[in-house]
Design goal:
The relative contact order is 0.17. With 119 residues, the protein is mainly α. The chain is globular. The chain is 74% helix and 0% strand.
Length: 119
């Protein structure tokens, strides 16, 4: 894969870099457990490649919106993601992407990371 192809793929996954860095700054400001949960979900979402960078950027921004509001309202992480964080994320990304292959190891890691963030 050439550098141009890699850059195009990365832009497709994360969206425009300026929006990506703004999203990352927002996540950094979240309370610890919420930040841990968002970072775990973000890692998992990287397996889903939206059809365009704007959809991808919107997906991450909406994730930040959701967790910022939850933190402000005192909503627990489990109230957001439910008992099955994999199911939550896969339903969430369906609004933005046709999805991708997610290795079982990534599913387990997400579940374990959310468990740590909620305990």
């Amino acid at each position: 894969m050439s550098d141009a192809e890699k850059s195009g793929f990365i832009s497709k996954v994360i969206g425009p870099k300026k929006r990506w860095w703004a999203y990352k700054a927002r996540v950094k400001e979240l309370p610890g457990k919420y930040r841990t949960a968002v970072e775990a979900i973000e890692r998992y979402m990287m397996h889903f490649v939206p059809t365009d960078g704007d959809s991808s950027a919107s997906m991450f921004e909406d994730l930040a919106d959701l967790f910022e509001q939850a933190a402000a309202d005192g909503t627990s992480i489990r109230e957001i993601v439910g008992d099955d964080p994999v199911e939550f994320v896969e339903a969430f990304v369906q609004n933005y992407s046709e999805g991708g292959y997610v290795p079982p190891r990534a599913r387990k890691r997400l579940t374990d990371d959310i468990e740590r963030a909620t305990s």
